[in-house]
Amino acid sequence: MPHFTTEDAAVLRVAPDFDLGSIDPDSTPGFTGKKADAAALFTEHDEEIAELQERMFANARVGRAAPSVLLLLQGMDTSGKGGIVRHVIGGVDPQGVQIASFKAPTQEERGQDFLVRIREQLPAAGKIGVFDRSHYEDVLIQRVRAFAPPEEIERRYGAIVDFEDELAASGTKLIKVMLHISKGEQGARLAERLERPDKHWKYNPGDVDERLLWDQYQDAYEIALRRTSTETSPWYCVPANRKWFSRLVVKGLLLDALRGFDLQWPAADFDVEVEKRRLAESA
Amino acid sequence: MPHFTTEDAAVLRVAPDFDLGSIDPDSTPGFTGKKADAAALFTEHDEEIAELQERMFANARVGRAAPSVLLLLQGMDTSGKGGIVRHVIGGVDPQGVQIASFKAPTQEERGQDFLVRIREQLPAAGKIGVFDRSHYEDVLIQRVRAFAPPEEIERRYGAIVDFEDELAASGTKLIKVMLHISKGEQGARLAERLERPDKHWKYNPGDVDERLLWDQYQDAYEIALRRTSTETSPWYCVPANRKWFSRLVVKGLLLDALRGFDLQWPAADFDVEVEKRRLAESA
């Protein structure tokens, strides 16, 4: 069974005329199946993903120039970023994964260029990195809350494009995903966190403060995605009211990124026959 | 079905009169079932492990004093350390896991006390840390190869016990596992790496150099485990010729460590009713 491919995801790609308001968070563009079909499909290529990841890891381990993947996740609170990490990345060998979660910058970080703390968390060669939030917060909450002056926000869009071009040139394949939920769905998910004592820890009164600025955030997302979706590192705006859909999409993008490297197992940098003899003699 | 418990593992605990040579790497002490029974048992408590891990993570997230777990893995090449990480730790939410793999120390690290680089990789509160090799290399290869003078090696056993007591006092539950394989089994596993081109990257000619010092390594392990197996942080010497057994044991030790914390979901540090009202008004 074919997975949800990058080609299928073309319809989710952000173009310069991107209109976030026109995208229905309940929809499943590019996928004609139902939830049960997605469930069957979801684990279909897990072994292949595991093997491709190991191949990438192997190339880096023996010192060959190896690429890396960086899955960058953005979305409003409760949009399912953590679930993607658990369910999509959870299937990969943890030794090959590097996860960074970006909170509000510290006092020290605020004194540096916004990309400094980002660079420190880039995945090593051969690894799959995940950014749970990212440098995009510096043009999202920072824009909405006016934490930085407009001319600095303006400068950042270009700086981000340059930075991501540089990443691509150095062998890091970036997969940028915005998980797009509706305000109603967020309300329901936050209400569940308040209902269930085992979910209270996930709730923060500040979540409602941001929610009250919903429209401003949607604007900030639309502008940010428009201005930073490039040929090399496009944005995918993934409807995420149905978690099974957004997870299927991200897994497909990851699989295609790994396939795209077309990596072979690294050849031995030692004489295999000599080593077989040495091993036989070491019994 | 009960898991393989810490009580079952009592027979694997290293006592002061520990004799490594008397432990059969093919055996499965404490377990009366067969491979198929172990397979059934292996995933039985995955949901519970996931929930306990999330509970620990939650406590740390809301700023409560939260414990952490540190699974420390030692063993000769091919003893299955990577497989433990993949199969035991692979089931846990990657956001709650921190893996460190210790290679030969760099020039800079050699100029520092041997514990400096170890401390830098300790798991944060609420996390499950894994050490693939550890500070024990500093009394294993360093002893066998005489990379450090005897009196320094001698000093390290005590320094390790002090360090681990300190870890325990600060809330880190240490699980120390030596994966014990036979020389014959290692030979077979290395031969497989040489046979299969997709495994060549895992082979290093240096592996045979160390293998030639097998008996010296067994001695170094026996001494290290004897001298650092304490009431608080005991060593488990786990027969590892049968991978299904060693994985079952480690998963059981992890489950019991998490259960032992007896953690509750953290109570809300906000007024739940007030927040429900605020949320309702934010529609």
UniProtKB/TrEMBL annotation, chains A, B:
Gene Ontology biological-process annotations: polyphosphate metabolic process
Stored InterPro entries: P-loop_NTPase, PPK2-rel_1, PPK2-related
PANTHER family associated with the record: POLYPHOSPHATE:AMP PHOSPHOTRANSFERASE, POLYPHOSPHATE:AMP PHOSPHOTRANSFERASE-RELATED
Transmembrane segments: none
Polyphosphate kinase-2-related domain span: 45-259
SUPFAM superfamilies noted in UniProt: P-loop containing nucleoside triphosphate hydrolases (SSF52540)
Protein name: Polyphosphate kinase-2-related domain-containing protein
An annotated Gene Ontology molecular function: phosphotransferase activity, phosphate group as acceptor
